[in-house]
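Run log, item B.
One chain of 531 residues. Sequence copied directly from the ordering sheet:
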Amino acid sequence: MTNVEILDSTLRDGSQGEGISYSVQDKIHIVQALDELGVKYIEAGNPGSNPKDMEFFQKAKELKLKNSRIVAFGSTRRKDVSCAEDVNLQSLLSAETQDVVIFGKTWDFQATEILHASLEENLEMIEDTCAYLMSRGRNVIFDAEHFFTGYKANPEYALKSLEAAVKGGAGVLSLCETKGGCLPNEVYEITKAAVEKFGKACVVGIHTHNDSGLAVANSIMAVHAGATHVQGVLLGFGERTGNANLSTIIADLQLKADCICVPEENLKLLTPICKRVAEITNIPLDTGMPYVGQNAFTHKAGMHIDAVLKNPFAYEHIEPEKVGNERVFLMSEVAGRSMIIEKIQKFDSTITKSSPIVTDIIKQVKELEHHGYQFEGADGSFELLVRKAIGKYQPFFKLHYYKTSDEYPLIEDGLYSYAQLKIDVEGTIRIAAGEGNGPVNALDSALRSALKKFYPSVEQIHLTDYKVRVLDGKDATAAKVRVLIESSDGTESWSTIGVSCDVVEASWLALVDSFEYKLIKDIERKYQKLI
């Protein structure tokens, strides 16, 4: 087994992605998640770049981490300035991390045209900086910026830049494929050359970008060439088209390449940790992401489902449980009877293919699909449908009425819709109102207000996605619409659906299913604890 060090740069390189901004508390939560997963290094930002990063490093000193080491990031000293006088290097030291990442130019073009330094001056900047930080008790990881481009342009100088870092005392040389334009065979050959020259003196690593869609492949090829340190971002986001996706790399290397990236027992945490990081980042986790995406082990075609039910090896490259994910069978017009049986048996193991209830459920599904429902993306609503059919459902409330209204022009910024509803909860009548930035938002607010006294956990529910699709455009504004709502309580996500000629009614149907799904799951979890 080969040990491969993982450096996660979600909080530094990942934060350069469009629309991503972390608070200090967000950063602390992500550090705790990555530590739980077991990555070796967490590159948490540049303390010299902004006050927020400096505040984070001060607070991070109080964290008690079990597996990970926090790393501060910075650049080599500026031209014509000593290390002791370089403000950014002093900020780097003030972070008081045991390990630091320093990036420097390894492409001759970058040295002369961007830094306006001579080639010799650039080498001195690299060596001086590494030596200075080593003398201050830091372990230095040298990020060889533009190394692959530089090597193709001037291999002798690119290798000299690595040599300068080694002379300065760097313990890790991370070869950066900064522009993301190399092919896997190029990365393999160039990494191999660096490993052959420096592999005995220090650890050689890889840092790739995804501009050609090859960041994961290039990282793995570098490991095959001898790299034992991999940098990236857990979910792959970042500047331009993103960074190497560590969730994929860790699973690929650990399950298929005889490598250890995180403690063996922690690999099953990969999917839940990815969900948690996506939640903190306030982005949806890509459903098609390998290993950890919602659809990574999802099956829809009837023949595929039938085969997987007999033996998952027929269509799955690993067992989903190994990475903390789960197998999903989609309910759709192409799904077979076997899939419906599998779903029903989650609630009643006595039901078989010949049970009359199976025919009834299939009939209901096909009828609903004829009216515009589509259950393949609405797992929550389909589960409720099955529960109702087999008698394992009890409504949490009964609606008497709801009504919504809108104001225009706006009386108050952001609030222009109002909702009122009346419901019956176990014989108790509740009337509640809500306001919001649309009728659905207002209804959501009113329903929470009415239910929270009886079911406090509804406060945990928040809508993460809301989609409306017009089913028959020729009817214009009278067309039937399908509303799909994705919800989360911070640990689990589920989707529900509603269909109507009235977009508010369709939304209400999906919203009610979302709340009821959550409440049913809460009851089941409490029951499981009791037994």
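Observations after the first pass:
- The radius of gyration is 28 Å.
- The mean pLDDT is 89.
Flagged for discussion on Thursday.
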